[in-house]
Amino acid sequence: MPPPLTAKDLARYIDYTLLKPEASRLEINKLCSEAREYQFYSVCVNGSRVIEAYALLDGSGVKVSTTVGFPLGAADADAKRYETEVAIDNGAHEIDAVLNIGRLKEGDHQYVLRELRDIVGAADERPVKVILETCLLTRDEKVLACKLAVDSGAHFVKTSTGFSSSNGTIEDVKLLREIVGPKFGVKASGGIRDTRTALSMIEAGANRLGTSAGVAIVRALASSR
After folding, report:
1. CA–CA separation, 169 vs 155, rounded Å?
2. Which residue is catalytic, options 15, 80, 158, 172?
3. How far apart are CA 161 and CA 136, in angstroms?
4. What is the pLDDT of residue 165?
C-alpha cells in the first residue's frame, strides 16, 4: 500500500474554488492568498476574475482554472468556444466546461462531440475538464458522456458544477474512473467539505478535487498526523 497522504500531498489535488455569483474582488484576493500559502494545484474562478487571479498568482506555481458554459452547459457551442478563447487570452491554465446535457439526453451525440472538440481546440493544449453533472444523468448517459469526453481530446471528466440538484458521489467517481481508465483525469466536485470526504474521493479514483473548503480540509489532515 502507498504511504498515507500528507497535508502537502493533499493540497496538490485541490482546485480551490470560488464560483458564487456574488464573489467580490476582496474574496478573490483572499482565495489566491490562501492558494499561495497552501500551494493548492489551482484556483477555479469565473471568467471575469481570470485576469486578476492570474496576476495575484504569478510566480506562485498555483494555476488558474476557469469555467465555460457554467453552470447549465446549455449555451450555444460557438459561445462556449469563444468563452474558452477569451479565458486562455486572459491567462487561464485550465478550462472546466459544462457538457450540453440536453443535447446528450436527446441523442445528438455528434453535436456534443463537435462542441467538446471545439473547446479543446480553443484551449490550445491546456487541460480541459468536461463537467458531466452526474446527478442529471443515467448510468448509460454517464458512460456515453465519458466516451465522448475521451474522444474529444479533453483531459478530465468532472462530476458536478455544485449548482445542480445534488453533488457527485463516491459511486460516480468509481464509475467514471472505471469508464475512462487509469490514465485519464477524474475530478470530483460538489459537497467536498471535509478531509474524510476528500480522501474517500481520491481512494475512489479522483486525481483532482474541486472544493471551496480547501483550507479546512488540509488543516484538518495536518492536525491529525
Report:
1. 20
2. 158
3. 11
4. 86
